Amino acid sequence: MSVIETRGLRKSFRSPLKKPGVLGAIQHLFKPEYREIVAVTDVDLSIEAGESVAYVGPNGAGKSTTIKMLTGILLPSGGEVRVNGLHPYKDRMRNSKNIGVVFGQRTQLWWDIPVIESFTLLRDIYEVPPKTYQDNLAYFTEMLGLDEFLNQSARRLSLGQRMRCDLAVALMHNPAVIFLDEPTIGLDVAVKERIREFLKTVNRERGVTLMLTSHDLDDIEDVCRRLIIIDTGRIIYDGSIQGLLDKYVKERSIRIIASVKIDRAGAARAMPAGVEIVSSSDREMTVVFDRFRYTAKNVLEIIMKTVDVVDFQLEEPDIERVVKSVYEGRLELVREA
Questions:
Q1: Measured between alpha carbons, how far is 188 from 224 in angstroms, rounded to an integer?
Q2: How many CA atoms lie within 13 A of 83 on its CB side?
């Protein structure tokens, strides 16, 4: 069953056109002019219960605008949207009780009171039953290591501590869906790993549907099984992460270690079209090949004719390189059927 469903979802904004100076301000006051900026257009989504979805794209692509429409913050300009069967904007109160939201640059905690008091206030706002609250508090405290700062004010927390608290708050009322907008931005490696493990656990054990936006591609690979790429307001790819790599990454590489000094010139002459040496030292060499023309076995057999290979490492396609190419406009994607 789809917990998130959109059809032709669209959002545009009116931006004022003003000439500079006082004269321009006066002219705009009496004869205002505007231009339409389309942030999101024709977005079709169907996300099933329990999915973990990465929603990514370059800055200004429409990611946050989409999330704000799904959470009820923004009213769509057109199209249809349902989250748990509800219209997020028209049914904001009911929708808010079925979703959790974490924005990396914002917090739901009150700055000047202890964290535990923020939790109890939000418990009352969401009308969480006492036993559910106690069970969830114990679970999140253990999973996220909250006990050491539950009695500190939010103002005194580090960014990593605050983010762990915000995750607990977002899930305290057992939402069916949680939206995460840059949840690991600015965090150190250890905290990022802890948050990723926590998100995978609640997705696996509690069936919480995750929709994550992030520029950290480690978040995407580690947490999500489905990837949606949006650019200039339109979805340009919707499928598995592996499917993206299999379909669009043309090159693979092999790193070779030899028993004796490598004759690079001789090895280069032995390479057919589509196979290239990109780096080498005395006893190491990296070869890039067109994986649609050759298998790794083919390439190794070619290399071993001129190089005494004692070890090798096959490097898998890199999602960071693919997504970077999309952001830079060097790779045109098509949506999977």
A1: 20
A2: 30
The domain ranges of the chain are: 48-245, 250-316
- pLDDT digits 0-9 by tens, 122-152: 999 999 999 999 999 999 999 999 999 999 9
What's the mean pLDDT when you consider all of the chain?
88
Q: What is the pLDDT of residue 337?
A: 43
Phi–psi pair at 271, nearest 5 degrees = -80, 130
Task: Using CB atoms within 10 Å of the CB of residue 325, give its burial: 0 to 12 exposed, 13 to 18 middle, 19+ buried.
Answer: middle
Give the CATH fold of the 48-245 domain: Rossmann fold (3.40.50)
**Residue 51, number of CB atoms within 10 A of its CB:** 19
Is the C-alpha dihedral spanning 134, 196, 45, 37 positive or negative? positive
Q: Which fold has domain 250-316?
A: Alpha-Beta Plaits (3.30.70)
Q: Do domains 48-245 and 250-316 have the same CATH topology?
A: no
- Of residues 165, 163, 230, 229, the one with CA closest to residue 191: 163
Alpha helices by DSSP H, 86-240? 92-96, 115-125, 130-144, 159-171, 189-206, 217-223
| β 52-56/2-16 pair status | unpaired
* Residue 147, CB-side half-sphere exposure with 13 Å CA sphere: 6
